[in-house]
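Page 42, continued from yesterday. The earlier attempt failed because a stray header line got pasted into the input along with the sequence. Redoing it now with the clean sequence only.
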Amino acid sequence: MAASTIPVSAEENLADPIDIRVDIIHPEPVAAVAFPAAAIVRTQAQHGEAIRGIQEHLLGVPIQEELTALRFRADIAEAENASLRARIKTTEAIEKITRNRERQARV
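This time it went through. Structure tokens are written below.
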């Protein structure tokens, strides 16, 4: 149903109120459709698989292989960080011992 329009001139009657009325109609649903939960879950899983397949195809790299490679690189980076932290602690300990011995030598 098309709503009717009321032309209003912006130059005339600027202080007059405009009364606008709207009829709101709540349509009744034609039919209620019930889907079993199992069908919905199955459909979502199928869509998820299809989306992953499309993404793999578009990237040209299987996602699982890429994730495995990224996890491997992250593990290497974590090991390097742990090694660097250990070297820093060792260096700090050596500097502390050196300072203590220099102080003792001065005394």
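Notes: The chain is about 65% helix and 0% strand.
Reminder to self: strip header lines before submitting.
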